[in-house]
Amino acid sequence: MGILYVVATPIGNLQDITLRALDTLKAVDAIAAEDTRHTSGLLSHFGISKKLIAVHEHNEHQSAERLLLQLNAGDSIALVTDAGTPGISDPGAVVVDLVRKAGVKVVPVPGVSAVITALSASGIAQNGFLFHGFLPASGAARRKALEALKSQEVTLVFYEAPHRIVDSIVDLCAVLGAERRITFARELTKTFETIHSCSLAEAQLWLEADANQQRGEFVLLVEAATVKDAEEIPEDAVRVLKLLLAELPLKQAVKLATEITHEKKNVLYEFALQLKQQAE
Comparing C-alpha atoms, which of 160, 163, 149, 168 is closest to residue 225? Predict the structure, then answer.
């Protein structure tokens, strides 16, 4: 039985490919690619010649079955997309899922990911992040998705295409609030790489001041929602929490207080810690 290698490829600068990725691409029997023409250019640059199989969003289910037959016959196959890591807002997850369920070995060959690349250069030090990928294309659906995310107390990370960037920024500002900060990571690792931070109130003006800043692929990193201060917790919730803390361990008290008051667990937990520290 063959092996499916999930191979990350550069998002712009070809020198970002790993030595292991090159060795893998040279060794496999075939390469499953999102766009065979694009991958042909990558392989040609590194002097690699391999059979290419098209696996894109419109044929992924059918291609997965075909790849499984080849893997069962003993072929080893590398799965790549046009840029970055397969399965991360790109085709690949369907193939990997089917292959793993069939008992075929799947080996990740890690490398570049636009999400991690953007975060590493943003200077954002908040507690964790939520990667959403691309927002819906239509305005109503996009605003609905943002409403569901607005209270997340972690950095929000999105991908966005150039033809939708202004509309998306308008909706981000309207739904999440003009005061939140956003970091644009545009054309990462490429000639016109740009990393810019500002408030959402300033973001549209920054984009429209220079049409060139609306070109290329974007990673958008939006500041987390502000955690409620203790004084913002409703009095009834504070009373319930204090009563429970007097009788129960902290974690159990917070769990019950959350169920009773429907306040956010992390907010009550932080407040409970403050109460405990004051008591000590």
Answer: 149
